[in-house]
């Protein structure tokens, strides 16, 4: 059911293998390590190096502010059995009039190749469409980021075109420093009816369940 509040609810989504929940301050160490991965630095705009202060600001201030304002939702993606942080899914650039948003995600290096990106983005997309009444989800992938393009294809996205020279990626120089490179972006879209074509993937990943008013973890 779509809420009349401008903000997004504090909820958790679960699949057979994963839990998507609000980020918590206890995630700071693992989140910091994940965001310092070479591929994350190359294909995203996060600060490099990424510090614990950066992580704490995002987790405790900026992400909750986005959720409260209804401009975005950031989920921590954790393994159901181990509760280990495997990644994050960020629904951002929300346009409530058009009922559209953009999905961005990061998967920790050790967790790649397990299908976690597809499973977590599908769970977030299903919730956004079914519970929040949205009609469109976009993914934007850098032209050379073939791994993200494969994720978009596997979850049923349709490639809509190329935004030329629209992104700045990063690459290592021979001296080991980061340098910035302009690149194209491929725009992908996912509509509610597109999920019908990935029913098998959803079944393999497990149907997702909602847990409203997620309490988070308590610390001593």
TrEMBL record:
Keywords from the UniProt entry: Transferase
Top-level lineage group: Bacteria
GO MF terms, alphabetically ordered: protein N-terminal-serine acetyltransferase activity; protein-N-terminal-alanine acetyltransferase activity
Gene Ontology cellular component list: cytoplasm
Domain N-acetyltransferase: 18-180
Pfam family, one: Acetyltransf_3
InterPro entries membership: Acyl_CoA_acyltransferase, GNAT_dom, Ribosomal_N-acetyltransferase
PANTHER family: ACETYLTRANSFERASE (PTHR43441:SF10), RIBOSOMAL-PROTEIN-SERINE ACETYLTRANSFERASE (PTHR43441)
Protein name: GNAT family N-acetyltransferase
Species per Swiss-Prot/TrEMBL record: Streptomyces alkaliterrae
């Amino acid at each position: 059911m779509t809420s009349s509040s401008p903000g997004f609810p504090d909820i958790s989504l679960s699949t057979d293998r994963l839990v998507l929940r609000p980020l918590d301050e206890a995630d700071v160490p693992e989140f910091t390590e994940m965001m310092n991965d070479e591929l994350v630095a190359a294909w995203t705009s996060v600060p490099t190096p990424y510090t614990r202060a950066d992580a704490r600001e995002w987790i405790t201030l900026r992400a909750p502010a986005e959720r409260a304002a209804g401009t975005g939702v950031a989920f921590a993606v954790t393994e159901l059995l181990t509760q280990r942080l495997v990644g994050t899914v960020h629904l951002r650039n929300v346009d409530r009039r058009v009922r559209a948003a953009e999905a961005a995600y990061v998967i920790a290096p050790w967790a790649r190749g397990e299908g976690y990106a597809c499973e977590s983005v599908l769970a977030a997309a299903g919730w956004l469409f079914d519970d929040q009444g949205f009609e469109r989800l976009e993914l934007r992938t850098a032209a050379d980021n073939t791994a993200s393009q494969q994720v978009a294809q596997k979850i049923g996205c349709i490639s809509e075109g190329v935004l030329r020279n629209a992104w700045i990626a990063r690459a290592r120089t021979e001296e080991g420093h980061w340098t910035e490179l302009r690149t194209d972006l491929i725009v992908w879209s996912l509509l509610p009816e597109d999920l019908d074509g990935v029913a098998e993937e959803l079944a393999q990943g497990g149907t997702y369940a909602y847990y409203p008013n997620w309490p988070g973890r308590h610390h001593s």
